[in-house]
Amino acid sequence: MNKFIIPIKILIFLTLAISLNSCEALKYKRTKAGEVPINVKDRVKKNIEEGKGFRLMGGNKKGGTFDFASSNELWRATLDTIDFMPLVSANYSGGIIITDWYNDSSSTGQSVKISVRFLTNEVRSDALDVKIFTKNCDTTVDCKITEDKGTLVLEITKSILKKAALYAKQNKEKNKVIYENSALD
Predict the structure, then answer these.
(1) Count: domains in the chain
(2) Do residues 127 and 170 both lie within one domain?
């Protein structure tokens, strides 16, 4: 029985030594003053933004704040502008909307496809990357696809930005808080 105890002890010791030596999380990392927020909620937020943590059940969000596509004015304005076209992909988290090929049946053999990429959530002129592709087909097999960089791209971008600015203004007015000064009454 003694001849098995010594190898088992050595095996346990080596396993512990290897596992503790390879554990990077146990090493101390020096930080400068001011790098780590004092407030606990700010520390948690910073760690999650840096990918160092996670939240279960969405944290402690209060009612009225939500991360949903309808709260983004650019997203809503884009969907409203191209609502006549069938969508292939609308990925809010990825920031892209791609339509399917569209033909208004007045021009045979020509179809249009639009892709809108969101570069920022702010309503500004460089927030969108709109690309329009045209497909001209002589036959069902012989098609040529080209990117349209003409006035149609500018018109669609302008239309989206106008609607987004209107939505942002409406949202701002809706969320405006009126403060009453009770001391003057």
Answers:
(1) 2
(2) yes
Q: Residues 79, 162: one domain? A: yes
Q: What is the pLDDT of residues 53-96, one digit of tens each?
A: 555 555 554 444 444 556 688 999 999 999 999 999 998 888 89
Q: Which helix (H) or strand (E) holds 14?
A: helix 2-21
Which domain does 45 fall in, by range?
A: 2-49
The pLDDT tens digits of the residues spanning 144-184 come to 999 988 899 999 999 999 999 999 888 888 776 665 655 55
Token duo for residue 130: 């709109």
Single out the residue of 98, 100, 86 nearest to residue 131, CA to CA. Answer: 98
- Establish if 60 belongs to a structural domain: no
**In terms of pTM, does the model score above 0.70?**
no
